[in-house]
Amino acid sequence: MLRILRRFMAFFQRRENPNRHLGLPQGDTKLKTVQGVVTSLCDDYGLIDESIYFSTNIVTENVPLKIGQKVTAVVEEDKTFVELKATKVDVIPDNFDVTKPLDSRIRVLVGYVTCIKKDTVYIDKKIYFSIDIVSEGFVPYKGDWLEVEYSTQPGTSNIKAHSVKPMNCKHVDEVCITSLQERHGMIDYTIFFTLDSLKLPDGYVPQPYDVVNVVIVESVQLCCVWRAVSMTPVQRSS
């Protein structure tokens, strides 16, 4: 990971004015704003979503960054180069943020699961909901980022959740189980899974070095930001 960060840093140092001595036209650049997660971090630079380089001196809030921290970034996109560079980074408060309302009653809250007690999922002490309203087929786990549609009861600050789903979810094919200890493991060193919350085909027991297809959700876990929620072994032709 450090090697990847150093490659990005060296690339952008060379890019500061790559055609300065050649008299060639500069690349066609444009800016866009994205939301992502800090996935790699060194003393003075890091990566967002493993693809956007940033220097820590452009972070606007005086908040110590950490892996898994959600941020919004203004990104310089250059058609001449594949790599992306952030020109401004804003830290999203650690636990949740509220987006603009969908209408006058329903709002959307984004936050991560801090604990689960019986059939109740907690984002913090005041924001919790029954697991029954979670989207079908998904079981939240501590650290999972969720998108919650909610409303507030008139005249109070009480929140009523209406629907809950993973904030980010995607399929990843043909990846390798790189470690498995008791009931927890890693896939490709970057995706966490636990047998306590993992859908498996009948009769299949994951083993180290199995090649699998997985469905993953964004989640705050130790040393990674994704969690596998289902796993299917890849059938290899003989």
Question: What does this molecule look like?
Answer:
It is a single chain. The protein is mostly beta strands and about 240 residues long. The chain is built from one helix and 17 strands. It has one helix at about 1-15; strands spanning about 30-40, 45-50, 50-55, 70-80, 85-90, 95-100, 105-110, 115, 120, 130, 145-150, 160-165, 170-180, 185, 190-195, 210-220, 225-235. The protein has a five-stranded mixed β-barrel with strand order 1-2-3-5-4. It has a five-stranded antiparallel beta sheet with strand order 15-14-13-16-17, with no helix packed on it. The longest helix has 14 residues, at about 1-15. It is flat and about 50 Å long. Residues about 1-5, about 10-25 and about 100-105 have low confidence and may be disordered.
* Unreliable stretches: 1-5, 11-27, 100-104
**Percent of residues in beta strands?**
over 45%
Average pLDDT for all residues: 78
The tally of helices reads: 1
Helix content: under 10%
Overview in brief:
6% of the residues lie in helices and 48% in strands. The protein is mainly beta. A five-stranded mixed β-barrel has the order 1-2-3-5-4. A five-stranded antiparallel sheet has the order 15-14-13-16-17, with no helix packed on it. The protein has a four-stranded antiparallel sheet with strand order 6-7-11-12, with no helix packed on it.
